[in-house]
């Protein structure tokens, strides 16, 4: 069970967010900078962050100004451009606006492209080191749910979704989301405990949009993911937790929450998670004696959603089920050369998935609540940082892909919108008028403000749920 939100957790989240955004913005802007320099375009400034500079340095023959600024939510590369002021006659040939269209497009593409290349690099590190991944094995199936009506059973393993193999839980989840948002029906192939394979169709109908909301997918379909059951016996009580304040000790076995008997640790989580802030009585077994401990359930906001927690870690003593670790996990590990292809494929598939989801948000097939903002990103990166370097690098790769793909959208203020202007100039034979560009910038800024406002609203709403 996740420990309580604490000042230390918030500090880790903030630092992880700053590091992640700083690295990804640096990669993005370095792409613009590097390609511009290679193509002979003069760079005036390279800034990570906005606002008041915390550090500045002027260097090189061109006297480029390098800066790290106070607001770590972006960055920019300023190129020499006659549209932004007087340019010395000797530097006119190096001005951005004087370059052929292909050079300008190359500079604009470089930022998003470097983000995607960086994701390939991160996945290469992960695949060469080896990434343990959960297999998509079905846990409890809710009676009379979408899943049960389709014939999904306990301990079925999802081996394909929409005809694509799903060796890992991540692959199955992405496949389910993509197939769900396409037409409201999920076509999957499963393997039962008897080894037999079956084709199933889960019909969500008009509930498909609702199921794309955060943490709604599996509960809405009516199943969870199988995991080893462990007893509700406490191995460790977290510092500054509800359990510690209630007097719970290592070695205690929690047998009841209120009047509900607890079968195992997952049952304990299921009873506590929906009850943040509620006062109940825990019945625990300690040295053969039953004790009643009043407790006010604490809360966690990990993942952007308010949920109950008491702050205990279970013993690592799985209840015998007949399944081994090999049944539950697969190791994604490749040689250095093979890992390049796997990393590139992973980046491509994730990029295409991201684009499709963005398109389906626009068409209304995916809930607007799926859009997350800086608060959720900070919490996600903070959580990932606490889980170890593999999870952190994987999260960094996903955010890098999102940054690359979203910057290619044809919104005027983004790289994609600027590329549209260059392509329009190529077709027309002359630059887009300043009036049209100014109007586009205004529309682009309004769209970004709207998107950021929605993202912040979603972040805050998840905390208030």
Automatic annotation (TrEMBL):
UniProt source species: Steroidobacter gossypii
Q: What is the lineage of its organism?
A: Bacteria, Pseudomonadati, Pseudomonadota, Gammaproteobacteria, Steroidobacterales
SUPFAM superfamilies to which the protein is assigned, alphabetical: PDZ domain-like
NCBIfam families given in the database record: RIP metalloprotease RseP
Q: Which family does it belong to?
A: Belongs to the peptidase M50B family.
Q: How does it sit in the membrane?
A: Multi-pass membrane protein
Keyword flag Membrane: yes
Q: What is this protein called?
A: Zinc metalloprotease
Mind telling me which Gene3D superfamilies this protein's record contains? 2.30.42.10
The Enzyme Commission number assigned here is: 3.4.24.-
What is this enzyme's class at the first EC digit? Answer: hydrolase
Domain PDZ stretches: 122-194, 219-288
């Amino acid at each position: 069970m996740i420990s309580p939100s604490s000042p230390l957790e918030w500090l880790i989240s903030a630092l992880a967010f700053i590091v992640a955004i700083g690295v990804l913005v640096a990669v993005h802007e370095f792409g613009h900078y590097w390609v511009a320099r290679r193509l002979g375009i003069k760079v005036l400034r390279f800034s990570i962050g906005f606002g008041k500079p915390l550090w500045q340095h002027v260097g090189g023959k061109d006297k480029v100004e390098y800066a790290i600024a106070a607001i770590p939510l972006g960055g920019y590369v300023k190129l020499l451009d006659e549209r932004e002021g007087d340019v010395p006659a000797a530097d006119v040939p190096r001005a951005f606006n004087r370059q052929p269209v292909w050079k300008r497009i190359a500079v604009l593409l470089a930022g998003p492209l470097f983000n995607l290349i960086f994701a390939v690099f991160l996945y290469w590190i992960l695949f060469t080191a080896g990434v343990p991944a959960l297999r998509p094995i079905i846990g409890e199936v809710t009676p009379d749910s979408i899943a049960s009506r389709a014939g999904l059973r306990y301990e079925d393993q999802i081996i394909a979704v929409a005809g694509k193999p799903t060796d890992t839980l991540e692959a199955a989840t992405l496949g389910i989301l993509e197939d769900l948002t396409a037409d409201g029906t999920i076509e999957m192939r499963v393997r039962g405990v008897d080894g037999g394979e079956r084709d199933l169709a889960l019909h969500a109908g008009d509930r498909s949009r609702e199921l794309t909301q955060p943490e709604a997918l599996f509960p809405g379909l009516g199943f969870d993911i199988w995991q080893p059951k462990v007893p509700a016996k406490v191995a460790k009580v977290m510092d500054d937790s509800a359990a510690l304040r209630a007097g719970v000790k290592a070695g205690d076995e929690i047998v009841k929450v209120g009047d509900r008997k607890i079968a195992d640790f997952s049952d304990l989580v299921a009873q506590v998670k929906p009850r943040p802030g509620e006062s109940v009585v825990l019945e625990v077994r300690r040295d053969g004696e039953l004790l009643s401990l009043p407790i006010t359930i604490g809360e966690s906001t990990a993942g952007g959603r308010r949920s109950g927690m008491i702050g205990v870690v279970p013993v690592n003593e799985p209840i015998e089920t007949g399944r081994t670790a090999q049944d539950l996990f697969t190791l994604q590990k490749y040689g250095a050369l093979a890992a390049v292809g796997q990393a590139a494929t992973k980046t491509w598939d994730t990029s295409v998935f991201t684009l499709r989801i963005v398109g389906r948000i626009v068409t209304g097939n995916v809930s607007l609540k799926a859009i997350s903002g800086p608060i959720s990103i900070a919490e996600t990166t903070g959580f990932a940082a606490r889980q170890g370097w593999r999870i952190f690098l994987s999260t960094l790769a996903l955010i890098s892909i999102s940054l690359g793909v979203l910057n290619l959208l044809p919104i005027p203020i983004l790289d994609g919108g600027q590329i549209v202007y260059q392509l329009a100039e190529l077709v027309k034979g002359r630059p887009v008028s300043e009036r049209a560009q100014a109007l586009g910038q205004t529309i682009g800024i309004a769209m970004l403000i709207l998107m950021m406002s929605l993202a912040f609203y979603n972040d805050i709403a998840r905390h208030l749920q």
